[in-house]
Every structure is written in C-alpha cells, then in structure tokens.
Amino acid sequence: MIVCSCNALSHRDVEAAIQSGASRPAEIYTARKCRAQCGNCVPGMMCLLKEALQNRAMIQKNASTSFVEQRA
C-alpha cells in the first residue's frame, strides 16, 4: 500500500525505516532519502509508527516478564 504518493513510499518502506530505528516521520523520510512534500502522508505514517512502537513495547515487556519468570 502506498503511504506517501509524493515520494512513492509504501507501507513496507515505512516499516523498514521503523525497524531501522526511526521513531518520527522526519526520521522515516531521512531513512528513505526523501523529504515531506504535501504532508498528507503524515497521519498514515503516525498510525504505522504508533502500531510499531506499541508492538515493540509489548515484545520487550513479554521478554522481560519471561526473563523474570525463568529466574524465579
């Protein structure tokens, strides 16, 4: 799915930037070597960012909970 038509960024491009450490739209543009143009893609990027960050937090929480349970 195309998230940013100005820069032809797909959701996979955005997800790859997030996995590489991007946590803000500006960092996604930088990772993909482009810049914001019209700004219509920012809400979609924010949604993908929020989802990815929530998933990352949940994975970290589950990993730490699992580690604590193993030590008990």
Automatic annotation (TrEMBL):
Q: Which family does it belong to?
A: Belongs to the Bfd family.
Gene Ontology terms, MF aspect: 2 iron, 2 sulfur cluster binding; metal ion binding
**Cited InterPro entries:** BFD-associated_ferredoxin (IPR052371), BFD-like_2Fe2S-bd_dom (IPR007419), BFD-like_2Fe2S-bd_dom_sf (IPR041854)
Keywords from the named record: 2Fe-2S, Electron transport, Iron, Iron-sulfur, Metal-binding, Transport
Q: Which residue range or ranges hold the BFD-like [2Fe-2S]-binding domain?
A: 2-51
Descriptive protein name:
Bacterioferritin-associated ferredoxin
Q: Does the keyword Electron transport apply?
A: yes
